[in-house]
Write the structure tokens for this entry.
Amino acid sequence: MNSFQIRLGGHRLSWPAAIGLLIILVFIIAAIFAPLLAPFPEAEVVGDAWAEADGTHWLGLDNLGRDIFSRLLFGARMSIGLSLLITCISFTVGIITGFTAAIAKGWVDALLSRVVDLILAMPTLIFAFVVLSVLGTDLPVLVVTLALLDSVKVFRLARALAMNISALEYVEVARVRGEGLWWVITREILPNATAPLIAEFGLRFTFAFLFVAALSFLGLGVQPPSADWGSMVRDYRDVIALDLAAPLYPAGAIALLTIAINFVVDWMLSIHSRGHGEGA
Amino acid sequence: MSERIPGEVILDVAHLRIAVSEGPVLVDDISFTLRRGEVLGLIGESGAGKSTIGLAVLGYTRSGCEITGGNLMFEGQDIRTMTPAQRRALRGNGIAYISQSAAASFNPAHTLMRQVCEIPLRDGCTTAAEARARAISLFAELDLPDPEHFGNRYPHQVSGGQLQRAMAAMAMAAKPDIIVFDEPTTALDVTTQVEVLASFRKLIREHGTAAIYITHDLAVVAQIADDIMVLRHGRMVEHGRSTDILHNPQQDYTRRLVADRAEGHAQFPAQDETPLLEISHVVASYSGLVRVIDDVSFAVHRGDTLAVVGESGSGKSTLARVIMGLLPREAGDVKFHGASLPPRLKHRTVDQLRRVQMIYQSPDVALNPNQTLLQIIGRPVQFYFGRSRSEVRDRVLELLRLMELPESFIDRKPAALSGGQKQRVGIARALAAEPDLIICDEVTSALDQLVGEEILRLLKRLQDELGIAYLFITHDLGTVRRIANKVAVMLNGKFVAGGLTATVFAPPLHPYTELLLSSVPEMRADWLDEVLAHNRRIAS
Amino acid sequence: MIRLVALRLVFGLVTMWAASVLIFGGTELLPGDLATAILQNSATPENLAELRAHLGLDRPPLVRYGEWLTRAAHGDLGTSLSNDRDVVEEIAPRLRNTVFLAGFAALIAVPLAIGLGLLAAIWQASVFDRVINFVTLLTISVPEYLVGYLLVKYFAVRWDLFPALANVSPETDLGGRIYLTALPVVTLVLVVVAHMMRMTRASVLSIMASPYIEMAFLKGLSKPRVVVRHAFPNALAPIISVVALNLAYLVVGVVVVEQVFVYPGLGQLMVDAVSKHDLPVVQACGLIFAGAFIMLNMIADIMAILSNPRLRRPR
């Protein structure tokens, strides 16, 4: 047991988390270096449609004769990049509003919280449909819509965290000392909220990622000719009837990344619930 | 209790050893016997293994732990080798358990009656009517109000003291031979503790039940136990008759526990100067509804230790918040060095803030877990005095020395420290601001007895050296007598008595002060009888 | 407690109203209105204005919202822009199909998930618990279409056990329907069970860790009795709200599954309508989906309030 141990931030890494991290790393490298790694360009027709896999085309060719493996690599850029952008926006908005509500209290908090309750009580997908049906499926529209819908959940967490931590006595000590708001937030509250916030970032990312993929799959997300895993599943789905595995590759890639993130998040939450004891 | 004649041995524990599975040993080499009608007190600080032993007697270990050695014989049967069915019969019928928190130990979904009657009805040997009748008579014996209908209530509908007694009824319902009491009065206020303790004692005496009484408070166990076993770090320190342990302890550790904790407060004669802190007719409430502080006035001079005492909910901690400016006062005045302090924190000057510091009850949440001691203690030095980095470090080292903490701790985080050490860091942080007044909010109540004693001694020494004044908020009257030269007794947000400690605690006493004082357990075996007799006299 | 339930009901109504405002507002007030949506690229300022006047879009939005809401309340959801059929007629058979699919899936998923959740909690840290935890962590991460296509690839194409397309028609009888929807139902069940089972396990475990359960064991009660008499009454409320929350999820998750199996349900209709900018249909479907979701969430909360003894019997 002790011969093989990886530690991260002073905590022993569980093996699913280690595998998860490895997968995430591979995917990120694939996304960043897709143009260098991909054997063929994204949209070039290199052979017959649905050609079998062989030494040059590892996963075969697609409906138009494009290399599926290369399109998967390029698709990683779009799928991961888009979800990352959405998550970053939703986090910025969610944390700022959440912390503001927790610290301002009073009517600001009451107003924000009621609006958030209202939005949370409604189905996100349906809302996205309504907005997309009118505004069309532009990428900026998609990103902003999903980010705002998602920021509501970040708001909830950020507000609860800030509320809980600011009720602790060490925060009171800082306030009574006469420290300014900026110090209290950045030195006393934020460092103690990072672990749950990072875990939440992972969860929100998978949510955005699955959501974008689902919309693309439904034909309402990323539009051709850009390669994106969700729309690739959509493009290839008909050949499932021919017992070809083509749609399973992008779908599997989506699942693999989500599983990897969930493993890491699961591990992070478990060490967080164990407290700050180990290796402080 | 010499008047009781114990019967045959009913529980024989020999060389008991309990360990975390593949981990450290929690309890080792514990041996004792319990005779019918006998009460054994298990005493020790947190982590001494008292509860672990108490639970092991019922053949139960918390998850992750197991009994790894020794024998537990109940009426000649080994508890360790019992079948699950035998063990279930043992629990409840043979040995019953009473836990510290009755509020958490009753199922919120069922009535008290249903839970009290559960064990007798389990085996079907009692009818529902019989079980009910027995429960009602137990409620009556335990002095519960309206015993006929008490059982119809749900756990959240009765008070903490009543619930604790209802749990005793639940334990007694199936007429067990032994009851394990696990800190049953620790969560209660002192005045409630007296009543509950008396009910327990009456119950086990009248039914001749043997008992294991677990507590950290020697004075409590002195009232109820025939024998006492002192535990430390899972091992026995001393075991003997209660009178011997209390009056003639053999081991050094026991002697320290039993030792009279008197410190004596040096009286500061110069009381005619302007008071450091003067509070007059202060009124405060939460969201303007109930007055939590109602017309309170007092003064603290340099070098004073003013103790504010009262039971939970009396408003004593709120008073600290009002002085600190965390809760704005609604009326009255708070003067510091003769000048009025603004009611709100944000209107106070940095110097006003610096001069009043606070130490908290629970050092775990009072220290930021993400900062090192250098940051925690150094920040006030830097913030108030604008010192350079190296000066800050020097000052922190100096404060650590003053706190009798190793200098190497400076780069550690709080998680690496023990409870007592953390509390010293809290004190160092307060001192770093070089205050005139420190408000101490229950600073020893989260600590073990001997650790708390050391903290009090340290505070006392600092006062002698630095001349700081303390406002000492506490529910522990024993502490007050020893360290405070002035005292104020709070009840429902008002001061019912106040002045020099010697005067307040000397006759003629205010009735509430008298009740509080008499409720503090003393290490005399006959204390409880005296209190009860005394209370009866007052009542009649 | 009645006050709390009433408050929750009021909040449910307010949410429903807010959803209607957002759905109407989303489709009517955002830049690019119904007229631009219909005309798409052939829009010129003249024919836009003409169409707006024809559709009554030149009147104030508040008036139109009021009209839309009153008509919706009377069961008139307007006419579809793509094929001029009455929206209610268009929706009714598809709603039936969707309710059948979701209901069928729920019927299997709910008992299965609660059963597995309880077993995993009772045998906590056993091999069974660890395996099922790992498997469910996998399945909650897997998108519905991967599960769907995997099932199609093996059960429909390779082994030819079930049809790949769930093309039910109003004439299909119950047996036929069950046969046709077998794969979509299994897909939904797999996805929902994982969530529901994990949440059930967590809520039972948090109750099993409470001191009154330890007390029940110390009173000498057997494990089955402790679970049934002491843990279950307290776990019921969290489990019911877990079920309601997951049914709400099911209602929305059905959209993707319908797409995979080309099932003529409400979700597919809505997706089509969104890509065709058929606003009246989008509005109608949105209202129905949102309504079901909000109602299930409300039921979850009210059950939680009702089963709390502290609220049921005040001091």
User: Anything to note?
Assistant: DSSP finds 14 helices and no strands in chain C. Residues 36 and 68 of chain C are 19 Å apart (CA to CA). Residues 223-260 of chain C form the longest helix (38 residues). Chain C has a mean pLDDT of 81.
